[in-house]
Amino acid sequence: MKAIVVQEFGGPEVLRVEDVPVPMPGRGEILVRVHAAGVNPVDTYIRGGAYARKPSLPYTPGYDAAGVIDQVGEGVDGWAPGARVYVAGTATLGTYAQWTLCTPSQVHPLPDHVSFEQGAAVGVPYGTAWRALFQRGEARPGDTVLVHGASGGVGVAAVQMARAAGMRTIGTAGSETGAALARAEGAELVFDHHAADYAERILEATGGRGVDVVIVMLANVNLARDLALLAPNGRVVVVGNRGTIEINPRDTMARDADIRGMLLGNTPPGDLARIHAGIVAGLANRTLRPVVGRRFELADAPLAHEAVMAPGAHGKIVLTMPA
Ligand code: NAP
Protein backbone atom coordinates (compact mmCIF):
# COMPACT_ATOMS: atom_id res chain seq x y z
CA MET A 1 0.00 0.00 0.00
CA LYS A 2 0.99 3.65 -0.32
CA ALA A 3 1.77 5.50 2.90
CA ILE A 4 3.60 8.64 3.90
CA VAL A 5 6.77 7.60 5.71
CA VAL A 6 8.87 10.15 7.57
CA GLN A 7 12.50 8.98 7.77
CA GLU A 8 13.83 12.11 9.50
CA PHE A 9 12.25 15.11 11.24
CA GLY A 10 12.28 18.29 9.16
CA GLY A 11 10.32 20.49 6.75
CA PRO A 12 7.29 19.40 4.72
CA GLU A 13 9.61 17.75 2.17
CA VAL A 14 10.30 14.87 4.59
CA LEU A 15 6.72 13.64 3.92
CA ARG A 16 7.41 11.05 1.22
CA VAL A 17 5.19 8.33 -0.24
CA GLU A 18 6.57 4.79 0.14
CA ASP A 19 5.27 1.30 -0.62
CA VAL A 20 4.80 -0.56 2.65
CA PRO A 21 2.99 -3.80 3.52
CA VAL A 22 -0.69 -3.62 4.47
CA PRO A 23 -0.73 -4.24 8.24
CA MET A 24 -2.60 -7.27 9.63
CA PRO A 25 -4.97 -6.75 12.57
CA GLY A 26 -3.80 -8.50 15.72
CA ARG A 27 -6.02 -9.47 18.63
CA GLY A 28 -8.26 -6.55 19.58
CA GLU A 29 -7.37 -4.55 16.45
CA ILE A 30 -9.38 -3.32 13.47
CA LEU A 31 -7.99 -2.76 9.96
CA VAL A 32 -9.54 0.27 8.27
CA ARG A 33 -9.29 1.02 4.55
CA VAL A 34 -8.68 4.77 4.66
CA HIS A 35 -10.48 6.95 2.09
CA ALA A 36 -9.44 10.33 3.50
CA ALA A 37 -7.13 11.50 6.31
CA GLY A 38 -7.33 14.71 8.31
CA VAL A 39 -4.40 17.13 8.44
CA ASN A 40 -4.00 18.83 11.83
CA PRO A 41 -1.53 21.54 12.89
CA VAL A 42 -0.06 19.08 15.41
CA ASP A 43 1.02 16.81 12.53
CA THR A 44 3.34 19.62 11.40
CA TYR A 45 4.74 20.21 14.90
CA ILE A 46 5.56 16.49 15.23
CA ARG A 47 7.05 16.31 11.72
CA GLY A 48 9.32 19.26 12.54
CA GLY A 49 10.76 17.32 15.51
CA ALA A 50 10.19 20.07 18.10
CA TYR A 51 7.02 18.64 19.68
CA ALA A 52 7.12 17.25 23.22
CA ARG A 53 5.90 13.81 22.15
CA LYS A 54 8.02 12.49 19.32
CA PRO A 55 7.41 9.15 17.55
CA SER A 56 10.42 6.94 16.85
CA LEU A 57 11.60 7.10 13.26
CA PRO A 58 10.50 6.12 10.70
CA TYR A 59 6.83 6.85 11.25
CA THR A 60 3.59 7.53 9.38
CA PRO A 61 1.81 10.73 10.52
CA GLY A 62 -1.88 11.33 11.17
CA TYR A 63 -4.51 10.80 13.89
CA ASP A 64 -7.70 11.30 11.91
CA ALA A 65 -9.29 9.46 9.00
CA ALA A 66 -12.49 8.03 7.61
CA GLY A 67 -13.04 4.86 5.65
CA VAL A 68 -14.44 1.36 5.78
CA ILE A 69 -13.60 -1.49 8.11
CA ASP A 70 -11.66 -4.09 6.13
CA GLN A 71 -10.88 -6.78 8.74
CA VAL A 72 -11.40 -7.26 12.45
CA GLY A 73 -8.94 -9.10 14.67
CA GLU A 74 -9.83 -11.78 17.21
CA GLY A 75 -11.67 -10.58 20.27
CA VAL A 76 -13.25 -7.53 18.59
CA ASP A 77 -16.98 -7.37 19.25
CA GLY A 78 -19.53 -5.07 17.68
CA TRP A 79 -17.64 -4.22 14.49
CA ALA A 80 -17.68 -6.03 11.12
CA PRO A 81 -16.05 -5.52 7.71
CA GLY A 82 -17.92 -3.04 5.52
CA ALA A 83 -18.88 -0.59 8.28
CA ARG A 84 -18.30 3.10 7.46
CA VAL A 85 -16.29 4.70 10.26
CA TYR A 86 -14.38 7.77 11.29
CA VAL A 87 -11.04 7.15 12.97
CA ALA A 88 -9.87 9.19 15.97
CA GLY A 89 -6.38 7.90 16.75
CA THR A 90 -4.63 4.73 15.63
CA ALA A 91 -3.01 1.71 17.24
CA THR A 92 0.31 1.67 15.35
CA LEU A 93 0.60 3.20 11.89
CA GLY A 94 -0.76 6.77 11.37
CA THR A 95 -3.61 7.70 9.04
CA TYR A 96 -1.63 9.13 6.11
CA ALA A 97 -1.87 5.69 4.50
CA GLN A 98 -4.27 3.53 2.49
CA TRP A 99 -4.89 1.26 5.47
CA THR A 100 -4.52 1.85 9.20
CA LEU A 101 -4.88 -0.19 12.40
CA CYS A 102 -7.12 0.93 15.25
CA THR A 103 -8.41 -0.30 18.57
CA PRO A 104 -12.22 -0.51 18.90
CA SER A 105 -12.37 2.70 20.97
CA GLN A 106 -10.67 4.62 18.12
CA VAL A 107 -13.37 3.91 15.49
CA HIS A 108 -16.86 5.41 15.47
CA PRO A 109 -19.83 5.04 13.11
CA LEU A 110 -19.98 7.45 10.17
CA PRO A 111 -23.53 8.07 8.89
CA ASP A 112 -24.16 7.57 5.16
CA HIS A 113 -24.91 11.28 4.68
CA VAL A 114 -21.41 12.26 5.94
CA SER A 115 -18.71 11.85 3.26
CA PHE A 116 -15.37 10.21 3.98
CA GLU A 117 -13.66 13.59 3.52
CA GLN A 118 -15.98 15.07 6.14
CA GLY A 119 -15.34 12.07 8.38
CA ALA A 120 -11.60 12.76 8.16
CA ALA A 121 -12.33 16.22 9.57
CA VAL A 122 -13.88 14.89 12.78
CA GLY A 123 -11.42 13.24 15.20
CA VAL A 124 -9.03 15.88 16.59
CA PRO A 125 -11.04 19.02 15.67
CA TYR A 126 -14.44 17.86 16.96
CA GLY A 127 -12.92 16.01 19.91
CA THR A 128 -11.00 19.14 20.89
CA ALA A 129 -13.98 21.45 20.43
CA TRP A 130 -16.20 19.20 22.59
CA ARG A 131 -13.56 18.88 25.28
CA ALA A 132 -12.93 22.65 25.30
CA LEU A 133 -16.55 23.76 25.22
CA PHE A 134 -18.36 21.30 27.46
CA GLN A 135 -15.76 19.56 29.64
CA ARG A 136 -13.04 22.16 30.29
CA GLY A 137 -15.13 25.28 29.58
CA GLU A 138 -18.30 23.92 31.24
CA ALA A 139 -20.37 26.00 28.84
CA ARG A 140 -24.13 25.65 29.27
CA PRO A 141 -27.22 26.58 27.26
CA GLY A 142 -27.82 30.30 27.57
CA ASP A 143 -24.12 31.12 27.94
CA THR A 144 -22.35 33.47 25.55
CA VAL A 145 -19.30 31.83 23.97
CA LEU A 146 -16.50 33.48 22.02
CA VAL A 147 -14.79 31.12 19.59
CA HIS A 148 -11.59 33.08 19.13
CA GLY A 149 -10.47 31.60 15.81
CA ALA A 150 -13.75 30.29 14.38
CA SER A 151 -12.72 29.67 10.76
CA GLY A 152 -10.53 26.55 11.09
CA GLY A 153 -11.04 22.91 11.99
CA VAL A 154 -11.57 23.30 15.75
CA GLY A 155 -13.33 26.67 15.46
CA VAL A 156 -16.02 25.56 13.02
CA ALA A 157 -16.69 22.51 15.19
CA ALA A 158 -16.97 24.65 18.33
CA VAL A 159 -19.37 27.09 16.64
CA GLN A 160 -21.65 24.27 15.49
CA MET A 161 -21.64 22.65 18.95
CA ALA A 162 -22.27 25.89 20.83
CA ARG A 163 -25.11 26.86 18.52
CA ALA A 164 -26.73 23.41 18.72
CA ALA A 165 -26.53 23.51 22.52
CA GLY A 166 -28.36 26.85 22.78
CA MET A 167 -25.45 29.19 23.42
CA ARG A 168 -25.07 32.69 22.01
CA THR A 169 -22.05 32.24 19.75
CA ILE A 170 -19.59 34.94 18.71
CA GLY A 171 -16.64 34.12 16.46
CA THR A 172 -13.52 35.71 15.02
CA ALA A 173 -11.75 35.09 11.73
CA GLY A 174 -8.88 36.65 9.82
CA SER A 175 -10.43 36.69 6.35
CA GLU A 176 -13.84 37.50 4.89
CA THR A 177 -14.27 33.91 3.61
CA GLY A 178 -13.44 32.55 7.07
CA ALA A 179 -15.91 34.98 8.65
CA ALA A 180 -18.63 33.98 6.18
CA LEU A 181 -18.04 30.34 7.04
CA ALA A 182 -18.26 30.97 10.78
CA ARG A 183 -21.52 32.88 10.24
CA ALA A 184 -22.94 30.14 8.04
CA GLU A 185 -22.14 27.52 10.69
CA GLY A 186 -23.92 29.36 13.48
CA ALA A 187 -21.95 32.33 14.81
CA GLU A 188 -24.36 35.20 15.41
CA LEU A 189 -21.58 37.80 15.10
CA VAL A 190 -18.10 37.42 13.60
CA PHE A 191 -15.27 39.93 14.06
CA ASP A 192 -11.91 40.25 12.30
CA HIS A 193 -9.20 39.26 14.78
CA HIS A 194 -6.74 41.53 12.96
CA ALA A 195 -8.90 44.67 13.40
CA ALA A 196 -7.73 47.16 16.04
CA ASP A 197 -11.13 47.54 17.75
CA TYR A 198 -12.64 44.07 17.64
CA ALA A 199 -12.37 43.39 21.38
CA GLU A 200 -14.31 46.57 22.19
CA ARG A 201 -16.93 45.56 19.65
CA ILE A 202 -17.33 42.16 21.29
CA LEU A 203 -17.79 43.83 24.65
CA GLU A 204 -20.35 46.21 23.13
CA ALA A 205 -22.22 43.28 21.58
CA THR A 206 -22.66 41.78 25.05
CA GLY A 207 -23.91 45.06 26.53
CA GLY A 208 -20.61 45.42 28.41
CA ARG A 209 -21.12 42.18 30.37
CA GLY A 210 -18.57 40.09 28.47
CA VAL A 211 -18.67 36.42 27.52
CA ASP A 212 -18.94 33.34 29.73
CA VAL A 213 -16.44 31.20 27.84
CA VAL A 214 -13.63 31.99 25.41
CA ILE A 215 -12.12 29.18 23.34
CA VAL A 216 -8.84 30.58 22.08
CA MET A 217 -6.85 29.20 19.16
CA LEU A 218 -3.83 31.53 19.54
CA ALA A 219 -3.40 32.31 23.24
CA ASN A 220 0.05 33.87 22.92
CA VAL A 221 -1.57 36.69 20.93
CA ASN A 222 -4.96 36.86 22.65
CA LEU A 223 -4.90 35.73 26.29
CA ALA A 224 -4.54 39.20 27.85
CA ARG A 225 -7.41 40.52 25.72
CA ASP A 226 -9.53 37.42 26.33
CA LEU A 227 -9.32 37.83 30.12
CA ALA A 228 -10.62 41.39 29.77
CA LEU A 229 -13.57 40.09 27.71
CA LEU A 230 -14.83 37.70 30.39
CA ALA A 231 -18.08 38.05 32.31
CA PRO A 232 -18.04 37.28 36.06
CA ASN A 233 -16.96 33.66 36.68
CA GLY A 234 -15.88 33.39 33.04
CA ARG A 235 -13.45 30.80 31.68
CA VAL A 236 -10.79 31.01 28.97
CA VAL A 237 -9.97 27.62 27.53
CA VAL A 238 -6.51 27.59 25.95
CA VAL A 239 -6.68 25.32 22.90
CA GLY A 240 -3.91 26.74 20.70
CA ASN A 241 -0.71 28.54 21.65
CA ARG A 242 2.53 29.26 19.81
CA GLY A 243 4.57 31.42 22.17
CA THR A 244 4.51 33.50 25.33
CA ILE A 245 2.44 36.49 26.45
CA GLU A 246 2.22 38.92 29.34
CA ILE A 247 -1.13 39.05 31.15
CA ASN A 248 -2.49 41.11 34.02
CA PRO A 249 -3.55 38.60 36.74
CA ARG A 250 -5.88 41.27 38.14
CA ASP A 251 -8.17 40.54 35.18
CA THR A 252 -8.80 37.08 36.68
CA MET A 253 -9.30 38.47 40.22
CA ALA A 254 -11.81 41.09 39.19
CA ARG A 255 -14.07 38.43 37.69
CA ASP A 256 -13.26 35.29 39.70
CA ALA A 257 -12.18 34.03 36.29
CA ASP A 258 -10.32 30.87 35.27
CA ILE A 259 -7.69 30.14 32.64
CA ARG A 260 -8.01 26.48 31.76
CA GLY A 261 -5.53 24.73 29.51
CA MET A 262 -6.26 21.55 27.66
CA LEU A 263 -4.56 18.94 25.54
CA LEU A 264 -6.84 16.43 23.84
CA GLY A 265 -4.29 13.70 24.53
CA ASN A 266 -4.77 14.23 28.29
CA THR A 267 -8.48 13.37 28.13
CA PRO A 268 -9.33 10.42 30.41
CA PRO A 269 -10.90 7.44 28.56
CA GLY A 270 -14.32 7.94 30.18
CA ASP A 271 -14.47 11.59 29.08
CA LEU A 272 -13.29 10.61 25.59
CA ALA A 273 -16.07 8.04 25.29
CA ARG A 274 -18.62 10.75 26.22
CA ILE A 275 -17.10 13.14 23.68
CA HIS A 276 -17.49 10.62 20.86
CA ALA A 277 -20.99 9.62 21.98
CA GLY A 278 -21.93 13.30 21.61
CA ILE A 279 -20.18 13.69 18.26
CA VAL A 280 -21.73 10.51 16.82
CA ALA A 281 -25.19 11.78 17.83
CA GLY A 282 -24.46 15.24 16.39
CA LEU A 283 -23.31 13.79 13.06
CA ALA A 284 -26.43 11.60 12.91
CA ASN A 285 -28.85 14.45 13.67
CA ARG A 286 -26.93 16.83 11.36
CA THR A 287 -26.19 19.49 13.98
CA LEU A 288 -22.49 18.66 13.37
CA ARG A 289 -21.54 19.11 9.72
CA PRO A 290 -17.76 18.93 9.13
CA VAL A 291 -16.61 21.45 6.53
CA VAL A 292 -13.78 20.48 4.18
CA GLY A 293 -12.10 23.57 2.79
CA ARG A 294 -9.24 22.02 0.83
CA ARG A 295 -8.27 18.56 -0.26
CA PHE A 296 -4.86 17.25 -1.41
CA GLU A 297 -3.77 13.87 -2.80
CA LEU A 298 -1.65 11.74 -0.47
CA ALA A 299 1.52 12.48 -2.49
CA ASP A 300 0.88 16.20 -1.96
CA ALA A 301 1.02 15.91 1.84
CA PRO A 302 3.91 18.47 1.88
CA LEU A 303 1.58 21.05 0.29
CA ALA A 304 -1.15 20.18 2.81
CA HIS A 305 1.30 20.78 5.67
CA GLU A 306 2.18 24.19 4.27
CA ALA A 307 -1.50 25.04 3.81
CA VAL A 308 -2.54 24.09 7.35
CA MET A 309 -0.03 26.56 8.79
CA ALA A 310 -1.00 29.40 6.43
CA PRO A 311 -3.44 32.18 7.42
CA GLY A 312 -6.95 32.37 5.96
CA ALA A 313 -8.38 29.11 7.32
CA HIS A 314 -11.62 27.88 5.78
CA GLY A 315 -12.67 24.67 7.52
CA LYS A 316 -10.56 21.57 7.32
CA ILE A 317 -7.73 20.28 5.13
CA VAL A 318 -7.83 16.60 4.18
CA LEU A 319 -5.74 14.12 2.19
CA THR A 320 -7.42 11.78 -0.27
CA MET A 321 -6.04 8.29 -0.88
CA PRO A 322 -5.13 6.71 -4.22
CA ALA A 323 -7.91 4.32 -5.43
P1 NAP B 1 -6.63 25.51 11.69
O1 NAP B 1 -7.71 24.76 11.02
O2 NAP B 1 -5.34 25.73 10.99
O3 NAP B 1 -7.24 26.94 12.13
C1 NAP B 1 -6.45 27.90 12.78
C2 NAP B 1 -7.40 28.94 13.37
O4 NAP B 1 -6.67 29.87 14.16
C3 NAP B 1 -8.13 29.70 12.29
O5 NAP B 1 -9.48 29.92 12.65
C4 NAP B 1 -7.37 31.00 12.27
O6 NAP B 1 -8.10 32.08 11.73
C5 NAP B 1 -7.13 31.17 13.75
N1 NAP B 1 -6.24 32.28 14.04
C6 NAP B 1 -5.19 32.76 13.32
N2 NAP B 1 -4.71 33.89 13.89
C7 NAP B 1 -5.49 34.14 14.96
C8 NAP B 1 -5.53 35.16 15.94
N3 NAP B 1 -4.65 36.19 15.93
N4 NAP B 1 -6.47 35.09 16.91
C9 NAP B 1 -7.37 34.08 16.95
N5 NAP B 1 -7.38 33.08 16.05
C10 NAP B 1 -6.45 33.12 15.07
O7 NAP B 1 -6.24 24.83 13.09
P2 NAP B 1 -7.18 24.02 14.11
O8 NAP B 1 -7.11 22.59 13.80
O9 NAP B 1 -8.49 24.69 14.17
O10 NAP B 1 -6.35 24.27 15.48
C11 NAP B 1 -6.32 25.58 16.05
C12 NAP B 1 -5.19 25.63 17.08
O11 NAP B 1 -5.48 24.75 18.15
C13 NAP B 1 -3.82 25.21 16.53
O12 NAP B 1 -2.81 25.97 17.14
C14 NAP B 1 -3.71 23.75 16.99
O13 NAP B 1 -2.36 23.34 17.14
C15 NAP B 1 -4.42 23.83 18.32
N6 NAP B 1 -5.01 22.55 18.75
C16 NAP B 1 -4.83 22.19 20.04
C17 NAP B 1 -5.41 21.02 20.52
C18 NAP B 1 -5.28 20.66 21.97
O14 NAP B 1 -5.43 19.49 22.34
N7 NAP B 1 -5.01 21.64 22.83
C19 NAP B 1 -6.11 20.19 19.64
C20 NAP B 1 -6.31 20.61 18.32
C21 NAP B 1 -5.76 21.80 17.88
P3 NAP B 1 -7.73 32.77 10.29
O15 NAP B 1 -6.94 31.78 9.50
O16 NAP B 1 -9.10 33.05 9.74
O17 NAP B 1 -6.94 34.01 10.65
Describe the largest sheet: 7 strands, mixed
Distance N to C terminus: 11 Å
Oligomer: single chain
Helix content: 25-40%
- Over all CA atoms, what is the radius of gyration? 20 Å
The total count of strands amounts to 15
**β-sheet strand percentage:** 25-35%
Run of helices and strands: EEEHEEEEHHEHEHEHEHEHEHEHE
**Count of helical regions:** 10
| Poorly predicted parts | none
Helix/strand-derived class? Answer: alpha/beta
Please, what is the average pLDDT? 97
Envelope shape: globular
| Small ligands present | NADP nicotinamide-adenine-dinucleotide phosphate
What does this structure look like?
The protein is built from 10 helices and 15 strands. It has helices at residues 41-48, 116-119, 123-136, 153-164, 176-184, 198-205, 219-228, 250-253, 269-284, 301-308, and strands at residues 2-5, 16-19, 30-39, 64-72, 84-88, 99-102, 107-109, 144-148, 168-173, 189-192, 211-216, 230-238, 258-261, 292-297, 316-320. Strands 3, 4, 5, 6, 7, 14 and 15 form a 7-stranded mixed beta sheet that branches. It has a 6-stranded parallel beta sheet with strand order 10-9-8-11-12-13, sandwiched between helices. The protein is globular, with a radius of gyration of 20 Å. The relative contact order is 0.16. NADP nicotinamide-adenine-dinucleotide phosphate (NAP) binds at residues 40-42, 124-125, 128, 148-155, 172-175, 178, 193, 217-218, 221-222, 239-240, 262-264, 308, 311-313.
